[in-house]
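Chain A, query sequence.
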Amino acid sequence: MDDETRHMVTPLRLPTETVAALDAVVAFATAAADGTLDDAAGLDRAVGSMQYTGARTHDDLEAQQVRDVVPALLAMWDAERDDVPALANAILRTADAAPQLVRHDGIDWHLHAVDAERPLAERIAVETAIAFVDIIRLGETDRCKRCADPRCGLPMLDLSRNRSRRFCSTACQSRVNVAAYRARAR
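Chain A, predicted structure.
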């Protein structure tokens, strides 16, 4: 079976931690775009209920470090499939990642690749790189999209069965549909 055929018949089977890491990219990119990552309180709101274990300093420097890592995460998000491995590998090399299977906080066995005491931004980057390793191997990189609303363009994770999702929210979808309707009505 060639790569394209295998890709077409592969059912969605992304590990929970992969989806969580990719959802985190969306959340951090959105927070960076709206200025939420400008301080520690904003980072705490952005992290919310995400299950990042390990050390947190809860200070403005940590928020800045997370904000500064967002472009590297989006570079993987927006890259062509064959370009993502170099970006993910660079993050893993820089962090001296050593993947290990762990189980904690009611989450079954999954990979952690850096020590829990490393800075939050580094753990986010490494978990995202590992998530991209998963979606590359599963042929699911096309699920990482940008919102089709030209005024938005935020990243979004398309978990629809047929990969048909185009907008990050119903607000964006409505805005584009209303604009199209008004254009037709003119």
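Residues 74 and 141 are 13 Å apart (CA to CA). The mean pLDDT is 90.
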